[in-house]
Amino acid sequence: MSKQFDFDKPTNRHGTHSLKWDKYNDDIIPLWVADMDFKAAPVIVNALQERIAHGVYGYTRPTQDWAQVVVDYYQREHNWQIKPEWLVWVPGVVASMNIACLALSPEHGTVITPEVIYPHFHGAPNNSHKKSYYQPMSTAQSRLRVDLDRLNEAPTHDAKVMLFCNPQNPGGCVYTADELANIEAFRAANNLIMVSDEIHADLILDQDKQHIPYGRISQQAQDNSIVLGAASKTYNVAGLACSWAIIANDEIRSTFQKAMHGIVSEINPLGYEATIAALEKGGEWRAELLAYLRGNRDYLAQEFASIDGMDMLPLEATFLAWIDVSGLGLDDAPAFFEASGVGMSPGAGFNDKNYMRLNFGCQRAVLEQAMQRIRKALAAR
Ligand SMILES: Cc1ncc(COP(=O)(O)O)c(C=O)c1O
Fold first, then answer.
1. Segments forming the whole domain that contains residue 237
2. Which residues, listed in sequence order, are joined to residue 357 by a DSSP beta bridge?
3. pLDDT tens-digit map of 332-380
4. Is the CB of 238 under 6 A from ligand 1?
């Protein structure tokens, strides 16, 4: 297949007030927060340019056509038939997690979350003063597994909400139908509402794996879950702040929407335009992106396999490698890697300081430079 898009082409993000690039000076390659260094698909840029050319950017109401685009996307990509009225547009997935904890967990209720986990899963229950129970995942068979025996020890008597991430961040696991069925059995037995963050659903790297939306597991799962999605990670438009929550259950959806009133602002017109263009027309770009990311992942896996003391967990999805660095015996791993010129996310933020998370959503040449720096710093120890 001939390539249409050049992911090797360097991009310069200086001067764009980029969270990722402005954290460090030029001596450190930023491989931390989860956005990619690639330009968005031309179909998205064109849609944005057309909207910008209009010149008026007032409050924007989502249309029925846009809802249908999301419905069609779930049917086409994930074999899940949803209804347009289940869709709630929210400016961010993290906002939805917070709304769910605020509105659906009882006042002193416990929110249950398997971890290690993306840091905002720690923030969401805290922000609305709910209790949290973090269930450590096991790394059996080099995979972050939800340990069901131990999950059954969770304090469920005052719990109403469970937070879950699939594909998993960090770790990039794509949970199988069996794994999801077991988790759903736990949810059902304890009458919980599952909040399933599926923002990375369209970044599956292993071609024999398939993402299963939580609501597709069963009718019961659909009626008792909130599935969170966005085009933001896959299409690199996170700064445009647009996402959705799929809530089939009328009562849960109404409670969720009431909690948003006056707190959650409108989605901006550009966020909608980018999202709709991505879902409708971004398929070819995404296919090439996945091939490129697969190459980056395989390159890193090969590199880390030859470095004693650094162990990269096999990754099925996402552009976020999870690397056990405990074998290096460093006192302060994040500081060591920053001093070597590579800025990764410290594992402590995900609640495992033995690990570092490396964002490989960047040009291969940048990764090669980062790996040279790591090797040089390790050799000089
Ligand atoms: C699992 C996960 N959820 C949510 C987010 C952020 O979503 P949003 O920017 O829509 O709040 C990220 C970003 O890295 C993520 O990895």
1. 47-281
2. 322, 345
3. 999 999 999 999 999 999 999 999 999 999 999 999 999 999 999 999 9
4. yes
